[in-house]
Amino acid sequence: MTLDFFMQAAAVANSLFSTCYKYNLQVENASVLLLLAEIYKKSDNAVLGLPYALASQSFCKSFNLDLLEASATLTLAELWLALGSSHAKRALSLVYQCLPMILGHGGLELRARAHITLAKCHLSDPKFSVPEDPEAVLDPLNQATEDLQVLEYHDMAAEAYYLKAMAYNHLGKLDEREEAAACFKEHITALEKPHNEEDSLVY
């Protein structure tokens, strides 16, 4: 997706927020702010996304929107992580903060996202050693792939298997690494398939 697409999406979301704010729609306010944070995250503009995630989190706290607050906190963790490995510990702290609510009340997608972000926090931390604590990475990734199998969310599943392959590589478990890499490739192929089908319809 192009930068123009994300900027248009952000403009629409900003307009929607103004409407929600005007009519005092608090839940919608928090949701649209979170949407704006997600738009900037997907457009690789984590710095621009941070204020929106923080604002959404603040709205949620004010109106006791616990699950939405947990979702905003997770997005905040993902944004910090996108800014580089030096923020891995801060991101990890945020994930642990929202994890109980997400695991207790969140849907499969949100749970999978939380598990993947948890593993990424560890793998991004230069002081973390996979051989010393492999379960810290593999347990959440196994849970994520299990949840995503039900949903058939190929993009998230591909990321989870990619991280699993990385972890097994650190552990020197080559068979497991190749198995995870093969699953990664399957999901990437499935992700690209609709685009290929659309291209074939042109001719």
From TrEMBL:
SUPFAM superfamilies: TPR-like (SSF48452). The keyword Membrane does not apply. GO terms for biological process: anaphase-promoting complex-dependent catabolic process; cell division; positive regulation of mitotic metaphase/anaphase transition; protein K11-linked ubiquitination. Signal peptide: none annotated. Keywords: Cell cycle, Cell division, Mitosis, Ubl conjugation pathway. One of its GO terms (cellular component) is anaphase-promoting complex. This is Anaphase-promoting complex subunit 5. It comes from Paspalum notatum var. saurae.
